[in-house]
């Protein structure tokens, strides 16, 4: 079967600095892949290449077999099909929650307001945010804001969700509620590529874990194998440092 996402020998330079060094990775539909590795290893850059927030230099990335720079995705089609959520939730402070989450679907993807708001309210309800549709971001906790940011990425019905350290800015007691939502998305079959430092979460949510160092995937495997019995001494050293 065609992988949902296929990354084929992708190379990326920032200036003369090699940041991705021939990365290949296939992600099947409904698969959850976690990327782990030290700061600077290229995790965010790889994620951003997948939905073209960053352009790479060599190699190819395909979505359902189609190169991501293919004209058929148009200017915004790829971003609708591949959602991304960041560590900093990037909500507009002057906009109510409902307007934050329906802005892109309405203005960029042409979804009618009523339809976008229906779906937004449904998702907000599902994520325990039903009472906050008319709140402003500053009235919400960090965990609630991050849940809103996840809803925002889901309103456009993406096929793939990219999550870049989405719990890293949260107080410890708020991390669990966001991870719970991601587990729920997995249960519903969402295809996800997740950068995380939460090894417990990677262990029970990922189908596969990839360890990056110096812009390469040094080792990958099922979480139980990679996190408990890594073969590469560098993976072992990384895990010993952070656990
Ligand atoms: P990670 O997410 O694993 O911490 P990044 O992908 O953010 O790693 O960064 C990989 C390398 O690329 C780092 O050395 C970083 O400094 C560099 N880098 C990232 N983004 C840029 C950028 N926009 N311009 C120049 N260098 C960058
Ligand atoms: Mg990063």
Strands, helices and their partners?
Blueprint: E1 5-14, E2 17-27, E3 32-36, H1 43-50, E4 58-63, E5 66-67, H2 77-81, E6 82-85, H3 97-107, H4 113-126, H5 142-155, E7 160-164, H6 172-187, E8 191-195, H7 199-205, E9 208-213, E10 216-221, H8 223-228, H9 233-242
Parallel strand pairs: 3-8, 3-9, 6-7, 7-8
Antiparallel strand pairs: 1-2, 1-4, 4-5, 9-10
Helix pairs in contact: 3-4, 3-5, 4-5, 5-6
The structure holds adenosine-5'-diphosphate and magnesium ion.
Adenosine-5'-diphosphate binds at residues 14, 19, 37, 39-45.
| Class by alpha and beta content | alpha/beta
Supply Rg: 18 Å
Distance between the termini: 36 Å
Order of helices and strands: EEEHEEHEHHHEHEHEEHH
Mean pLDDT: 95
Please describe the biggest sheet, giving its number of strands, its sense, and whether it closes into a barrel: 6 strands, mixed
Q: Trace the largest sheet across and list its strands.
A: 6-7-8-3-9-10
Q: Low-confidence parts lasting 5 or more residues at pLDDT below 50?
A: none
GO molecular function: ABC-type amino acid transporter activity; ATP binding; ATP hydrolysis activity
Membrane topology: Peripheral membrane protein
Subcellular location: Cell membrane
InterPro entries: AAA+_ATPase, ABC_ATPase_HisP-typ, ABC_transporter-like_ATP-bd, ABC_transporter-like_CS, MetN_ABC_transporter-like, P-loop_NTPase
């Amino acid at each position: 079967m065609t992988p949902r996402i296929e990354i084929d020998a992708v190379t990326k330079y920032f200036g003369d600095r090699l940041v991705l060094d021939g990365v290949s990775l296939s992600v099947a539909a409904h698969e959850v892949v976690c990327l782990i590795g030290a700061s600077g290893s290229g995790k965010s850059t790889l994620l951003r290449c997948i939905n073209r927030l960053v352009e790479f230099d060599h190699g190819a990335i395909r979505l359902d077999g189609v190169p991501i720079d293919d004209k058929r995705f148009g200017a915004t089609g790829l971003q609708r099909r591949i959602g991304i959520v960041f560590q900093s939730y990037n909500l507009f402070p002057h906009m109510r929650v409902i307007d934050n989450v329906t802005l892109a679907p309405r203005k960029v993807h042409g979804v009618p307001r009523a339809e976008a708001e229906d779906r937004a309210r449904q998702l907000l309800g599902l994520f325990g945010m039903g009472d906050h549709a008319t709140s402003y971001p500053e009235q919400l906790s960090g965990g609630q804001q991050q849940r809103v940011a996840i809803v925002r990425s889901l309103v456009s019905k993406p096929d793939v969700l990219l999550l870049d350290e989405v719990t890293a800015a949260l107080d410890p007691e708020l991390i669990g509620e966001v991870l719970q939502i991601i587990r729920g998305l997995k249960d519903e079959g969402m295809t996800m590529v997740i950068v995380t430092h939460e090894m417990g979460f990677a262990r029970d949510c990922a189908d596969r874990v990839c360890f990056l160092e110096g812009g390469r995937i040094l080792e990958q495997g099922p979480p139980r194998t990679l996190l408990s019995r890594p073969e590469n001494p560098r993976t072992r050293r990384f895990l010993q440092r952070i656990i």
